[in-house]
Amino acid sequence: MDKMKDRFRILGNQVEEQVAGLERMGGKAYGLYVLDKNGFQIPETAVIPVGTKFDSQILFQVSNFVKEILDSDSNALFSVRSSGCMEDGHQTSFAGMYETYLNVKQEDIEEAIRKCYQSAHSNRVESYGELMGIKKEEQKRMAIVIQKMVCADMSGVMFTSNPIDGNQSEVIIEAVNGLGEKLVSGQITPDYYCISKENGELLEFEPGDEDGMHLEKKVYETMRLDAKKLVMCFASEMDIEFSVENGNIVYLQARSITSI
Fold it and tell me: Which residues does the UniProt record annotate as the domain Pyruvate phosphate dikinase AMP/ATP-binding (predicted)?
């Protein structure tokens, strides 16, 4: 979009160098930051860093971010996501512990942000943190990610290596039609692709529950090449959420594979 110089915007008064890290961005936001810095396409994104006072100044910046998007797409909707400092890490994922809100209208964004902050104090977060030996104050350190929703034709998850047996010569993709929430929540069996990381051969394909679209070869070939770059960028095997919109791959989230 023309008005926005960057697809990734840090809100507040601090410069990028002061907040560009896990301690101030949390796992989800930092993953998006690395994706953007390395040239991968992400949605238009704004981040409220950890420790930033959620006051009228921040709300004004959020409002400006949202208005700039709506000026170029009046039908745009938004996602509001937590980005905990202990979330999406190498050893702990906190997956599903904090709140995420999708298809949020402009007038509901402030409430969604407040609910994300509140979710850091939930019983499920405290119970998981206690199980993993994480101090309560660390569990509550959270940034907020606000993004323009992608009008997804297909969505899914890409693993840069096989998450079952750790085979680093394979890229695994699971994909569904539309948004990926039905995959993440386990509502539906996705299409399954097992691809050779080295030469792009489709080693295995298992169709899922849906009769709609499947990933085009040029899409999963691009993702296979991206997988090799992503491992170098993050110095880790990765679990990447994505959407495909009009043939363009948009990366939504990046976290280390915690199972291998």
Answer: 53-258
Q: What is the Cβ-side half-sphere exposure of residue 163, based on CA atoms within 13 angstroms? A: 17
**What tokens appear for 228 in the block?**
């090799």
Whole-model pTM: value is 0.87
- Say if 191 falls within a structural domain: yes
Assigned domain for 3 exists: no
Cβ-contact 241, 150 below 8 angstroms: no
Q: Does any domain span residue 1?
A: no
Tell whether 132 and 68 lie within a shared domain: yes
Could you tell me the CATH number of the domain that includes residue 20? 3.30.1490.20
Neighbours of 117 (CB within 10 A): 16
Cβ(242)–Cβ(155) under 8 Å?
yes
Q: Domain count of the chain? A: 2
Residue type, 74: S
Q: Verify that 116 and 171 share a domain, yes or no.
A: no
Answer yes or no: are the C-beta atoms of 198 and 139 closer than 8 Å.
no
Tokens, residue 67: 């208005």
**Pairing mode, strands 78-84 and 100-104:** antiparallel
- Residue pair 121/142 in contact by the 8 Å Cβ criterion: no
List the domain range (segments joined by +) for residue 143. Answer: 8-148
pLDDT by 10-residue block (mean), the chain, 260 residues: 68 81 88 96 96 94 97 96 70 58 96 90 57 54 93 96 95 94 83 97 95 93 97 95 96 83
> Residue 204: beta bridge partners?
194
Helix (H, G, I), strand (E, B) or coil at 254: strand
Kind and range of the H or E run holding 45:
strand 45-48
Q: Write the CA distances from 227 to 33, 163, 196, 235, integer angstroms.
A: 17, 14, 11, 12
Are 95 and 49 within one domain? Answer: yes
β partners of residue 253:
241
